[in-house]
Amino acid sequence: MKKIKYFIITIISLLIIPLAVNAASGTIKVTGSSQVVVGNKITLTVTLSSSTKIGSWQMNLNYDKNYLQLTSTNSEAGGTMMANTTATGLTKKTYTFTFKALKTGSTKVSIDSYLVYAFDDLSQMSISTSSKTVKIMTQEELEATYSKDNNLKSLSVEGFELNEEFSKDLTAYTVTVPEDTKQITINAKENDSSASVTGTGTFDVTQGTNTFEIVVRAENGSEKTYTLTVEVKDNNPINVSIDDENYTVVKIKEYLPQVNAYQETTVKINDFDIPAYTSDLTKMTLVGLKDIDGNIALYIYDEKNNTYTKYNEIVGNNLVVYPKETDKVLKDYELGKIKIGDLEIPAYYLNNDSRFAIIYGINVETGEEGFFKYDKKTQSFLKYDDEMINKLLEQNELYSYIIIGFSGILLIMFILLIKKNKKRKKKENLKNDNNKKEEIKKYENKNEDKNEIIEIDNNIDNNKDEETYDILEKKSKKKKHKKQS
Which CATH number is 175's domain given? Predict the structure, then answer.
């Protein structure tokens, strides 16, 4: 329905506009990338422009559907047709078309039909067109076309001359500048416009050696590094050697790194007033030393012994601690290492998986020295109260002794209870044995009594028999006597 609407508008506009030829001229250009990888998307732009105002137009984009698939556009009809009129006139109209690349090869995108009319006199405009050829390739084929040129075309330091004559094949350069120079500007130009350059611009420099790297990256990703050494004159350098490394003392205050809880001061070194930091709390004086690469760091300066010690502070979320070595040992802790930022220092742990580490140092904001507990998760410090910990350990040790003593008492009571139980059982067994013996004895006595009774009964029976016999005998004698009488 939308396409029909714009088609009708176009037809009406063409019918009502008189056909005056060559009243004005304009161009239709198809622009965009010339190459794309299979499967990727490419956006092409169609631009209608003229030096005089345009009143209406109709254009159609032509492409090979075997190679490209239209995925989106801002044309009025939503396809390849571009047609419209304007009530105020315009000198430029732009359309975008996004395609998906379907297969490798070369294909052309062009305008195959067009009609454009001027706004002022409604005359048909003379239009010239251009097409766009797109090469579709694989990723490997595309990368093979990338430029390998990673050379510089020029290199300079603004306001100063390089000590060496520039050549794209020479990668190391030096320049000498006055001692009051604090900034330099490095300019460089790539040899190939498809390459990119990093390391140019304005940079701070300090007295002595300052090193900068300028890196050229070719279109294919290969890199080449040019080194520029800027020597800032120091007419009276103060040289220092630490662990076989050479340093120079920084003489300009602005070059010193920032530090917490210290005040600015100066110290005399080799009759020069050297900018420094000091603290009444930490009792330290800090000066700046620069290495041969131009890096500046703070060192603790011992004026009495004329020695320098690297100053490292750890900035936590709540405290700033300067770590120190100590002979003190934490009982029940394991000594190891902890890395905080770029600094690795000794630390105590309860175990390897502990979230907390105990380090020795000075709170630079208060001057308090001792052990500090560092929370690796929150990156914060807390004063380690070893007195409280030791008290807890002593209490734990006391509790351990109490528990051991209590356990010993319970063991002894248990043993005594077992012995008592055994003795009771033995006594019961002995009592049972005695009861059995008494029962046996009673049983035996009872049997003896029974035998006596039986014997007595027998005697009684015998006596009774004798008496009966005597009575019978007496009666027999009596009867016999009566008969005789």
Answer: 2.60.40
Among 99, 120, 144, where does a domain finish? 144
The mean of the pLDDT values for the chain is: 85
Q: How many CB atoms lie within 10 A of CB 344?
A: 11
For 465, the enclosing helix (H) or strand (E) is: helix 386-484
49 and 111 inside one domain: yes
The Cα–Cα gap between 69 and 465 comes to: 152
**Does residue 389 sit within a domain?**
no
* Both tokens assigned to 385: 């109260």
Q: Which residue has the higher pLDDT, 273 or 432?
A: 273
- pTM greater than the 0.85 cutoff: no
In this structure, what DSSP letter does residue 228 have?
E
How confident is residue 149, by pLDDT bands cut at 50, 70 and 90? very high
Tokens representing residue 250 in the block: 């920084």
Once rounded to an integer, what is the mean pLDDT over residues 349-362?
A: 87
Residues 192 and 210 occupy one common structural domain: yes
Strand partners, 335: 348
Are 11 and 136 in the same domain?
Answer: yes
CA distance 78 to 75: 5
Count how many domains the chain has: 5
Q: Is 139 found in the same domain as 6?
A: yes
Q: Are the CB atoms for 44 and 31 separated by under 8 Å?
A: yes
Which pLDDT value is given to residue 410? 81
d(CA 407, CA 400): 10
Residue range 382-413, pLDDT digits in tens: 888 755 455 545 665 666 677 787 777 888 88
* Residue 181 to residue 370: CA distance in whole angstroms: 44
Sign (positive or negative) of CA dihedral 242, 245, 246, 250:
negative
Closest alpha carbon to 24 in 90, 116, 153: 116
> Among 306, 303, 289, which residue's Cα sits nearest to residue 247?
289
